[in-house]
Amino acid sequence: MSFPLKLLLAIVVWLVFYLLTFNGCHEALCHACDEAPQEITESTDANRAAVADSPLYFKWSDTEAYISTGIEAFLRKQVLGGDSLQLLEITGLYFEGEKAAAGSENLGLARAKEVARLFDGLLDSTRLQLRARQVKAPADAKSAPFEGALFEWVDPKAQNSVEQLDDRVSIRFPTGSADRVYAPEVDSFLVKLAERLRSSGQPLRITGHTDNTGSAEQNISLGLARAEAIKQFLVKAGVSASQVTTDSKGDAQPVASNATEEGRYQNRRVEVRIEPQ
Questions:
Q1: Residue 44 reports pLDDT greater than 70
Q2: Where is average pLDDT lowest: 28-37, 83-92, 172-181?
């Protein structure tokens, strides 16, 4: 075979090899490009489904307030819900077992502070009141986003001695005292509670809480004394002592910042919960 023919054959072989190699790499590259957007889309869809279209949500042991589509309308709705004499109360929710936020009294207050930042430019910070509440965790709280804030317009002058929530009732106490705040609504609530317990036989748990004045040991003792004082009122009203369990959290679970007198007042309390039978 002549040299020119050999050269031509070599060129043809090289071209065939090049085309096969380039085409294979091109197909592999296109396949990888097709897969990448699919992975992102699936992740986004799963996340959206997990938060159930909520524009504001949180993650386990995380203080960051995550936002999604519709957050502007959601915030404006909260702002328009009150009048000029009221405060917007933001309650940050947290669960037993979550890690405490560094530099904050608890995770609930830290979350409330993060939500408050979202109102910059919409509502003056002096019209925001921050609260915290420990609640029962959703079954999938550790793996899925959850709603971690509640909103309510409140009267800033109202310091209710009795606060009724969905799952508990709080009764306030004076500074350093195990004697409850004496107000008609307190006695009225306790009398009605005693009537219910006598007729139903339901178990009751009373948990004492304090502000952060004093040592941790003193506050545990004071919280327990407050819980026992409410128990004794109910027992004298005919409730069986065996129905009522008392304990104390001291200053470990504040519902408001201890930096203000109003916040300390909110923290000096017992929480009364009717237990499932």
A1: no
A2: 28-37
**Could you give the CA distance from residue 206 to residue 211 in angstroms, rounded to a whole number?**
17
Residue 267 CA to its chain's centroid (Å): 17
Q: Which two tokens stand for residue 192?
A: 């009605």
pLDDT digits (tens, 9 = 90+) for 223-246: 999 999 999 999 999 999 999 999
CA distances in angstroms from 268 to 181, 219, 251, listed in the order given = 10, 10, 9
Whether the Cβ atoms of residue 127 and residue 87 lie closer than 8 Å to each other: yes
Residue range(s) defining the domain that contains residue 82:
56-154
Q: Pick from 113, 131, 154: which residue ends a domain?
A: 154
pTM over 0.70: yes
Q: What is the CATH number of the domain that holds 195?
A: 3.30.1330.60
CB 185 within 8 A of CB 178: no
The Cα–Cα gap between 254 and 241 comes to: 28
Q: Tell me, yes or no, whether 103 and 73 share the same domain.
A: yes
Domain boundary among 105, 132, 154: 154
How far is it, in rounded angstroms, from Cα 14 to Cα 220?
85
Number of domain units in the chain: 2
**Local confidence band at 31 (pLDDT 50, 70, 90 cut-offs):** very low
143 & 167 share domain: no
For residues 69 and 138, give the distance between their C-alpha atoms in angstroms, rounded to a whole number. 23
